[in-house]
């Protein structure tokens, strides 16, 4: 993939009560986390909210990225989906940075 080419489209899988706003926040978070990464060939994001108040962390955000032929995966669970997305951003940024700097 040419480094000047746009990033691949992010494929989403959602379940539960996930809004378009939250999906947009997840897209921005993943793109921020991948800033500076080259050779990203695919990105898949899963957002899930389970409607069960008894669960301590019913919201899940997960990303699987193909970065220079290697699969990078990060996920976070939280009480709310926006919290999970913020944690996902941090974890994905750390993993991709570690892979790039090697």
What report would you give on this structure?
The protein has 102 residues and is of the alpha+beta class. The protein has a single domain (10-101), classed as Double Stranded RNA Binding Domain. Helices cover 34% and strands 33% of the residues. The protein contains 2 helices and 4 strands. It has helices at 20-33, 81-101; strands at residues 10-15, 40-49, 59-67, 70-78. A 4-stranded mixed β-sheet has the order 1-2-3-4. Strand 3 and strand 4 (70-78) form a beta hairpin. The longest helix is centred in the C-terminal third of the chain and has 21 residues, at 81-101. The two termini are 20 Å apart. 25% of the residues are buried. The mean pLDDT is 92.
Task: List the keywords.
Double Stranded RNA Binding Domain; 2 helices; 102 residues; alpha+beta; elongated; four-stranded mixed sheet
Topology, element by element:
Layout: E1 10-15, H1 20-33, E2 40-49, E3 59-67, E4 70-78, H2 81-101
Parallel strand pairs: 1-2
Antiparallel strand pairs: 2-3, 3-4
Helix pairs in contact: 1-2
